[in-house]
Description:
- There is one protein chain.
- By secondary structure, this protein is of the alpha/beta class.
- Helix content is about 50%, strand content about 20%.
- The protein contains seven helices and seven strands.
- It has a five-stranded parallel beta sheet, with helices on both faces. Strands 3-4 form a two-stranded antiparallel sheet.
- Strand 3 and strand 4 (about 60-65) form a beta hairpin.
- Helix 1 packs across helix 7.
- The chain is globular and about 50 Å long.
Amino acid sequence: MSENGPQRSRPFVLLTGTPGTGKTTTASLIAERTGMKHVNVGELIKEHKCYDGRDEDLDSHILDEDKLLDAMEVLLDKAAEEGQGIVADFHVCEMFPERWFDLVLCLRTSTDVLFDRLTARGYNEKKRAENMEAEIMQVILEEARESYAHEVVHEVQSNTVEDMENNATRVEEWCKQWMKDTGNV
């Protein structure tokens, strides 16, 4: 959203975490329960071709951050103008301006569960190892804590479907309180 963009009447939430932690599944649950628009940032990148080449070792595109941020800004401004809440999910969080999100949920998963999820996705050994190390070292959580105000960043477990359901319920309740606190009930 631009500095002088529309005032939001609904919250914007970011789900972040290592690939395989359940961000897209949880974001879909939240969107379903709250009526918020789900923005799968990975899909947005593909749709708007926000990449500049390919990293063959990691079997992934090289992100064009500027192009992504431009596409996101248009989408978020439109949502705010239309009174639409947003729940976005992506494994990178530090590039997004702090003003864009009212809540940042960092999903964490135990390494045994994460290993199985990444293997099921067909990740090659190098890509799987890099993501496992990132989860062990809390890379995404630390990036979130360094990029956003302490009170908006929350670490939650995402090992089971029940965890994901509980996280969706938690965000649903948080959204209701945000609406009351901001006078947008």
